[in-house]
Amino acid sequence: MGVRLGDDSQLTVSLQNCTISGNQQGGATLTGTYNQDIRENYWGDWTGPAGLGRGSGDSVGSAYLIYEPWLESPFSESFSISEGWASNRVAPSRQSEVYFWASSPASAAWTFEIRSEDSSLQHLSERNGNQFLHRWDCLDQQGLPLAAGYYNWRLTAARSEN
User: Fold this and answer.
1) Between the CA of residue 9 and those of 35, 61, 90, what are the distances in Å?
2) How far is CA 97 from the centre of its chain?
3) Residue 45 burial (10 A CB sphere; 0-12, 13-18, 19+)
4) What sign does the dihedral 117-64-13-28 (CA atoms) show?
5) N- or C-end of the chain: fewer Cβ atoms within 10 A?
6) Which of 41, 6, 4 is nearest to 21 (CA)?
7) Pick from 82, 55, 135: which is nearest to 125 by CA?
8) What is the pLDDT of residue 1?
9) Residues with Cβ within 8 Å of residue 67, at least 6 apart in sequence
């Protein structure tokens, strides 16, 4: 078991920038009924935690564990995305666009991907600079509307000299 939190209503946990990975009995569980903050952790896979999560990493086993957003790779202090934002989590079928924005204190090479549940690439955008701003029109790489379903978006950044 990676992280096991007990039933203590007087205790508030905030666990960030950790790698929770390789645990045979699950990544995180909670026996209590109070929300605990375990956002911004790496779960062993860029898709996030399994269990109550939809990813392929170590599992989250309680609805009271707040795990979104997660890190897509192990935490590193040498370079980071300082803030980010998406205009909405769900794109209704009639909606024609979703906006994504992020920034970094250093110049970065940004890669933005949207993948279907089977991990096939549906959309790709790459840019350089301190900020990333992208308007996605909810179309695939060929310009066709995506079918109804669950899609993961991923934004990565690596230090760049540009």
Assistant:
1) 10, 18, 33
2) 20
3) middle
4) negative
5) C
6) 41
7) 135
8) 46
9) 28, 38, 39, 41, 43, 48, 49, 53, 60
pTM of the predicted model over 0.70: no
Comparing C-alpha atoms, which of 53, 59, 49, 56 is closest to residue 27? 59
With 0-12 CB in 10 A as exposed, 13-18 as middle and 19+ as buried, what is 127? middle
Whether the link from the prior residue into 69 is cis, omega within 30° of 0, is yes
Listed as ranges, residues in the chain with pLDDT below 50 are 1
**Number of C-alpha atoms within 13 angstroms, CB side, residue 37?**
8
Q: Tell me the residue type at 94.
A: R
Q: Scanning the structure block, which residue is given the tokens 């996030």?
A: 48
100: left (phi over 0), alpha (psi -120 to 50) or beta: beta
